[in-house]
Design goal:
CATH architecture: 3-Layer(aba) Sandwich
CATH class: Alpha Beta
Structural class: alpha/beta
Strand content: 15-25%
Largest sheet: 7 strands, parallel
Order of helices and strands: EHEHEHEHEHEHHHE
Amino acid sequence: MDLGLKGKRVVVTGGSRGIGFAIAETCAAEGAAVSICARSAGGIETAVERLRAHGGTVHGQSCDVGDPAALAGYIDAAAATLGGIDVLVNNPSGFGSTDDEDGWKKGIDIDLMGVVRATWAARPHLEKAGGGAVLNISSISGVGASNNIAYGAVKAAVIQLTQSHALTLAPKRIRVNCIAPGSIEFPGGVWARRKEEARDVYDRTLASIPFGRMGLPEEIGRVAAFLVSDAASWVTGQTVSVDGGQNL
């Protein structure tokens, strides 16, 4: 199935590893020009080299998504390098999992306002392109009650924000959708660490997934590529859970 991403200009925040990288790589493999950012400069360099193997234009930049000026500067730099923006994927997370001032601040500054500010910055470029797509990455923790109170609350806000942006940006021909991933395991990620450091938590979570395994980043990447493509041209305001039935 040709998703029609060839020549599209895709920007992914939090794109150096895990879900963000899988989305960027899937889009690059479909022929899109891709820009990614993350806090770690070293991680960006490695990710950019891997993305260049697909043969298209690739841009990478270190950026603290929680810094409004740095984030706006990154979006503009990505647009300048790619020649515009057709797709924005908001995938930042501070993983503020503690129910205290620090946990809530990380969640609000990065998981929520990182989405808001990146969309503000990208909107003029999307409008100049004649429309496009925004994809927000939330979590199944935002779909219902969660033991990670602060994390779940801000991810729920991202789902509501997706609906509101879908409504208000539709006249500009900008579609806005969301993915709520379940537990996704990859080297260096949250679940890989819990497997080593908190095996009881890992095993309980694994037992809650009907398919009997953790998800893979590329399984999110494939759904993401569809949602930002022209193949999903009549889909907006939706949140798709990609969790192997974990939230059932």
